[in-house]
Specification:
Layout (H helix, E strand, L loop, with lengths): L25 H15 L7 E7 L5 E7 L2 E2 L4 E6 L3 H8 L2 E8 L4 E11 L2 H10 L2 H9 L9 H14 L11 E15 L7 E7 L5 E6 L2
Antiparallel strand pairs: 1-2, 1-5, 3-4, 4-7, 5-6, 6-7, 7-8, 8-9
Length: 215
């Protein structure tokens, strides 16, 4: 099997990112970019992000999850703590998040440390989920081998019957992570591959060092 992709070309011309115009705190720039993409580039699933971890086998692994909240502290997403990513984070909390918003020709890469959020916060989010998603969290032993889809569908139906008319309680193995950033890079596509790259690095005094990187 072979396919030559060397002639795939795209000129990036939708924006610029100047060092003289960025805020001192990267979370403010992230919020600005997020709102712009969400408002003007509806083809992008704005809160879809790639989470990269180092697995128990020593290999990095990426997967797309949904960002559910961001604050000055960092970025929050939810998952099964017993999943492959959960086990990887328990062993090594250093993770990387990345967003690629192709409509805006923008990318954000975030290095940080993941930690479990407070149980009451996970409870609050779980309660806000659609009932089907709540039950789905009970059905799936995420990342474990399953014989076939019918096993999942039968288990779902059994749980729906068992829990009819009852509140669905968040399982203890499901909850949120907060990723506290230590480095955030903003990438804006530019013509001739001379892309803008602005990197923020957290310093010991909790200020951010801001640098322009060569594309």
């Amino acid at each position: 099997m072979e396919k030559d992709l060397s002639k795939y070309r795209k000129s990036y011309e939708k924006g610029a990112l100047l060092l003289t115009e960025v805020p001192e705190n990267p979370l403010e720039l992230f919020q600005k970019w997020f709102h712009e993409v969400d408002a003007f580039f509806i083809e992008d699933e704005t809160n879809a992000m790639t989470v990269s971890t180092i697995g128990l086998d020593g290999y990095p692994k990426n997967r797309v999850v949904l960002l559910k909240k961001y604050t000055y502290e960092g970025f929050i997403f939810y998952t099964n703590y017993n999943s492959e990513k959960g086990k990887a984070i328990a062993m090594n909390p250093n993770v990387c998040l990345s967003f690629f918003w192709h409509g805006a020709e923008r990318q954000v890469i975030i290095k940080g440390k993941a930690e479990k959020i407070a149980e009451n916060l996970s409870d609050g989010y779980f309660e806000s989920r659609p009932r089907g998603s709540q039950i789905g969290a009970l059905v799936s032993n995420q990342s474990e081998v399953v014989e076939n889809r019918e096993v999942l569908e039968n288990k779902l139906k059994a749980l729906e019957d068992e829990l009819e008319g009852k509140e669905v309680i968040r399982p203890k193995h499901w909850g949120g992570y907060l990723v506290r950033p230590v480095e955030i890079e903003f990438w804006q596509g530019r013509p001739n591959r001379l892309h803008d790259r602005i990197r923020y690095k957290l310093q010991d005094n909790y200020d951010w060092q801001i640098d322009r990187l060569s594309p």
